[in-house]
Amino acid sequence: xxxxxxxxxxxxxxxxxxxxxxxxxxxxxxxxxxxxxxxxxxxxxxxxxxxxxxxxxxxxxxxxxxxxxxxxxxxxxxxxxxxxxxxxxxxxxxxxx
Length: 97
What we know:
Shape: elongated
Number of strands: 4
Low-confidence stretches: 1-10
Number of helices: 1
């Protein structure tokens, strides 16, 4: 499965960035959401690519944003929208790695 993690430092996305400007020992929270990106319709047609967000084919990525800093601290994805709902992605992503 495609993972953004290999080139993550190139984009400045690091899980440890959630601690910037935080007091030692404080709780750090992140917001996680699935983001869909349109792609050209693969051939032959397969419903696994269907995104309900814009009614067409797409890839889904999971992004985590630190609530304190606003930094993107996690990115994962490039998965078919129809096979990976936001909920499934949030629940299963750590099991895959």
